[in-house]
């Protein structure tokens, strides 16, 4: 290699001369971009570079070097004829069947490794990464051949296309995914900020309930609960809740009530109504509500769940279910089970039943203060619990 790539005086390697080897008579080799420009692993590129120049150790090469005799130079896969690079990749019946299996059916007697770059596999992979696909196919044919030669493997197409059983991906109920994240920091337009619509509507609700600067005049409906009044906007309430839409714009009695007369709501507390209105305006969990936002009170969460169900606020209802799920314990599971059954929360109910059915939990649950009352007031749920335990 040094006579071709070395410095004329010192004999050291000159990279410019090494790159010049990629060219034939001043023209770029057709194999250069095909092999080295792919996304295949480096060892695959190096193998295919040797392959297109017929420099891999097939048995015809070993025969020329007198490492094997004529009787030992036949193809190890099909044993039909002399093993050459062309035969191994395209002439062997096994190789032909392989290319047909991956969708490349145009394999003729003239197909050779020197024309590897012209192999048409668009029917198999489309127009993306064609060269990489061809190189990987050749690499796996070579690995399969070596398995037959050195490990006495039986030629098998199934080995190429077999998929591991699903249980090999899951260990103890968990699947691990390995991935890489590439963050491209490119200069460009200013990033689009997150939506602040909820913040604006939240301030609209707050301003509507202030009395110091006349902002309450922007509201057009009042809701009264236990002597407290909450001012709001009919269009917002109707857009967020079909129940309020029927109350304010439908045939229900409240629709005919003037905006100056408060609509009296029942079976809800002021704290729960305030939290529910905050959600309806912002579409977010009412974190700033002193009664609900950071509270783990099961009673407050249950009351908010009931209100969300009553006014058809499905997203708020699911939020309440999740927080009740997270706060489930020996002392709270019975009351949560009752609410889950009452308001049709099937997943939450199942989790409660599963929790109670555990042997180590059931005795403790049965010894809580509220359990006897639960058995008396909700016999159907109690019997369902017993059946689930059995």
Topology readout:
Elements: H1 2-5, H2 15-20, E1 23-24, E2 27-28, H3 30-36, H4 42-52, H5 59-64, H6 85-91, H7 93-101, H8 122-125, H9 130-151, H10 158-161, E3 170-171, E4 174-175, H11 197-208, E5 221-225, E6 228-232, H12 234-240, H13 242-249, E7 263-264, H14 270-282, H15 298-310, H16 314-326, H17 333-342, H18 346-357, H19 359-366, H20 371-377, H21 379-389
Parallel strand pairs: 5-7
Antiparallel strand pairs: 1-2, 3-4, 5-6
Helix pairs in contact: 3-4, 4-9, 6-7, 11-14, 12-13, 14-15, 15-16, 17-18, 18-21
Strand content: 5-15%
User: How do the helices and strands follow one another from N- to C-terminus?
Assistant: HHEEHHHHHHHHEEHEEHHEHHHHHHHH
The largest sheet, given as strand count, sense and whether it forms a barrel, is:
3 strands, mixed
Overall geometry comes to elongated
Q: Note the gap between the termini.
A: 80 Å
Model regions low in confidence, pLDDT < 50 over at least 5 residues: none
Radius of gyration: 38 Å
Work out the count of structural domains: 3
Oligomer: single chain
Helix content: 40-55%
Q: How many helical elements?
A: 21
Arithmetic mean of pLDDT: 81
Give the name of the CATH architecture of the largest domain. Answer: 2-Layer Sandwich
CATH topology of the largest domain, which one? Potassium Channel Kv1.1, Chain A
Briefly, what CATH class of the largest domain?
Answer: Alpha Beta
Q: Tell me the number of strands.
A: 7
3D structure, described in words:
This protein has a three-stranded mixed sheet. The chain has a two-stranded antiparallel sheet with strand order 1-2. It has a two-stranded antiparallel sheet with strand order 3-4. The chain is mainly α and 390 residues long. It folds into three domains: 1-29, no CATH class; 37-162, no CATH class; 213-389, Potassium Channel Kv1.1, Chain A (2-Layer Sandwich). Helix 4 crosses helix 9 (130-151), helix 15 (298-310) packs antiparallel against helix 16 (314-326) and helix 17 packs antiparallel against helix 18. The chain contains 21 helices and seven strands.
């Amino acid at each position: 290699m040094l006579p071709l790539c070395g410095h004329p005086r010192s004999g050291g390697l000159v990279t410019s001369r090494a790159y010049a080897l990629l060219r034939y008579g001043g023209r770029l080799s057709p194999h250069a971009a095909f092999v080295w420009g792919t996304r295949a692993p480096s060892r695959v590129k190096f193998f295919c570079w040797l392959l297109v120049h017929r420099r891999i150790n097939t048995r015809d090469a070993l025969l020329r070097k007198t490492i094997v005799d004529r009787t030992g130079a036949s193809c190890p896969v099909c044993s039909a004829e002399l093993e050459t690079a062309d035969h191994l990749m395209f002439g062997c019946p096994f190789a032909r069947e392989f290319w047909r299996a991956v969708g490349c059916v145009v394999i003729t007697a003239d197909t050779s490794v020197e024309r590897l770059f012209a192999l048409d596999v668009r029917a198999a992979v489309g127009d993306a990464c064609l060269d990489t696909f061809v190189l990987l196919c050749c690499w796996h044919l070579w690995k399969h051949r070596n398995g037959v030669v050195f490990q006495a493997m039986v030629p098998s197409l199934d080995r190429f296309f077999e998929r591991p059983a699903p249980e090999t991906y899951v260990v103890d109920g968990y699947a691990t995914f390995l991935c890489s994240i590439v963050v491209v920091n490119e200069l460009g337009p200013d990033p689009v900020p997150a939506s602040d619509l909820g913040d604006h509507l939240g301030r609209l609700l707050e301003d509507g309930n202030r009395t110091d600067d006349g902002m309450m005049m922007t509201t057009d409906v009042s809701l009264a609960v236990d002597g407290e009044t909450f001012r709001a906007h009919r269009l917002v309430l109707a857009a967020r809740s079909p129940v309020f839409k029927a109350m304010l714009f439908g045939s229900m009695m409240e629709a005919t009530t003037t905006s100056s007369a408060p609509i009296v709501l029942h079976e809800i507390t002021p704290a729960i109504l305030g939290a529910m209105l905050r959600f309806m305006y912002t579409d977010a969990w009412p974190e700033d509500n002193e009664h609900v936002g950071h509270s783990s009170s099961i009673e407050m969460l249950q009351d908010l769940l009931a209100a969300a169900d009553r006014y058809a606020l499905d997203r708020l209802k699911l939020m309440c279910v999740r927080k009740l799920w997270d706060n489930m314990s020996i002392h709270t599971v019975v009351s949560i089970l009752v609410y889950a059954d009452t308001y049709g929360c099937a997943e939450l109910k199942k989790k409660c039943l599963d929790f109670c059915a555990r042997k180590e939990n059931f005795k403790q649950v049965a010894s809580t203060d509220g359990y006897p009352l639960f058995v008396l007031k909700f016999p159907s749920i109690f019997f369902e619990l017993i059946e689930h335990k059995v």
